[in-house]
Amino acid sequence: MSTPETSLFVRLRVELVVEVDNAGAVTQAALRRIASDADMPADERAHAESAVTEDTAEALAFLVDPFDLVSEVPGIELAQASWSSESIDYDPDSPEWDLDDDDDNEDDDEEVGVG
After folding, report:
1. Distance of CA 29 to CAs 32, 48, 72, 74, Å?
2. Residue 60: inside a domain, yes or no?
3. Is there a domain that residue 41 lies in?
4. Exposure string over 83-110, b if 16+ CB within 10 A, otherwise e
5. Cα Rg for the chain, rounded, in angstroms?
6. Residues 6+ away with beta carbon under 8 Å from 78
7. Which of 18, 20, 40, 59 has the fewest Cβ atoms surrounding its Cβ within 10 A?
8. Domain range spanning residue 46?
9. 58: in domain
């Protein structure tokens, strides 16, 4: 007996911390991406250029697209995505940056019905 295929929605959480060692290169790449978007209205283009020029984190957010992460994965269709970026103080030795602990806590919350 076979079961009919049903849609399955999966929330994929990804957190990245990147070190920017050439902010100018990031900004220039974002400006090139903006310039190459022929469908972007002029007022939106001006706003985007200003944002990526003033903030490297905004430039990076403009360059990273969740669709690019999953577009080549067979059998899926991106249903929804959101992302943001911010400059942070990062200490890889700090316990607050242990991503595995966060995952364990979330799993614990789900198992006992907290949250």
Report:
1. 5, 13, 23, 29
2. yes
3. yes
4. eebeeeeeeeeeeeeeeeeeeeeeeeee
5. 19
6. 66, 67, 70, 71
7. 18
8. 21-77
9. yes
Q: What is the pLDDT along the chain (115 residues), one digit of tens a residue?
A: 555 677 799 998 888 899 999 999 999 999 999 999 999 999 999 999 999 999 999 999 999 988 888 999 999 999 999 888 999 888 888 888 776 655 555 544 444 444 4
Q: Is the overall model pTM greater than 0.90, yes or no?
A: no
Q: Which residue, 27, 48, 26, 28, is CA-closest to 37?
A: 48
* Three-state SS sequence of 43-79: HHHHHHHHHHHHCHHHHHHHHCCHHHHHCCCCCCCCC
Instruction: Determine the 3-state secondary structure of 89 from DSSP.
Output: coil
Q: What whole-number distance in Å separates Cα of residue 99 and Cα of residue 21?
A: 23
The 8-class DSSP code of residue 4 comes to P
Which two tokens mark 68? Answer: 């690019």
